[in-house]
Amino acid sequence: MAFWEEKTLAEMTDSEWESLCDGCGLCCLHKLEDIETLEVEFTCVKCRYLDATRQCEVYEKRTDLVEDCLNVRDLDPEYYRWLPDSCAYRRIHEGQPLPQWHPLLVGHSQTMEEGGYAVGDWAISDALVTPDADFIVRIKASDS
Ligand code: SF4
Ligand code: SF4
């Protein structure tokens, strides 16, 4: 069995944990949450520090610079609803398998990118616009 099938997230080593991140960048999109229903909507507005290759330009000091940056390792699972349904951390927490296109399964991120499960050039930097309801987008649900 693969480590993600036999360990809980809390039991994983740092390298195991890191390897589960597919680098989709979707957690770096601004989200809007209904305070009554807790329903989360993603917007097409991305953090200004997410570069075109979906790398964080300020990784080491990201939580100092960006107030609502999600440090997923420290995030209470209660808030995994802020992650896309394709995110491995959310899926493992919910008892779901990794998506079929996950880089750990296929060895590359091309299938994920071509399938539309990652931030693309459609995303607008929050240096240019203020995220609000006009920017809500439907994030593609994982089909596995
Ligand atoms: S949404 Fe999940 S898998 Fe995608 S970049 Fe963020 S932490 Fe990694
Ligand atoms: S600062 Fe946080 S939200 Fe912004 S790109 Fe880096 S990891 Fe993503």
Walk me through what this model shows:
The structure is a single chain. The mean pLDDT is 96. It is built from six helices and four strands. Strand 1 and strand 2 (40-46) form a beta hairpin. The protein starts with a helix and ends in a 7-residue tail after the last strand. It has one domain (3-127). Strands 1, 2, 3 and 4 form a four-stranded mixed beta sheet that branches. It is globular, with a radius of gyration of 15 Å. Helices cover 22% and strands 11% of the residues. It is an alpha+beta fold and 144 residues long. One iron/sulfur cluster is lined by residues 21-27, 72, 83-84, 87-89.
Provide the number of structural domains: 1
Q: Structural class of the secondary structure composition?
A: alpha+beta
Specify the oligomeric state: single chain
> What gross morphology would you assign?
globular
Query: What is the share of helical residues?
Result: 10-25%
Query: How many beta-strand runs?
Result: 4
N/C terminus separation: 19 Å
Q: State the order of secondary-structure elements, H for helix, E for strand.
A: HHEEHHHHEE
Regions with little confidence, pLDDT below 50 for 5+ residues:
none
- Overall pLDDT level: 96
Please, how many helices? 6
Task: Write down the Rg.
Answer: 15 Å
Which features characterize this protein?
144 residues; alpha+beta; 4-stranded mixed sheet; 6 helices; 22% helix; globular; binds iron/sulfur cluster
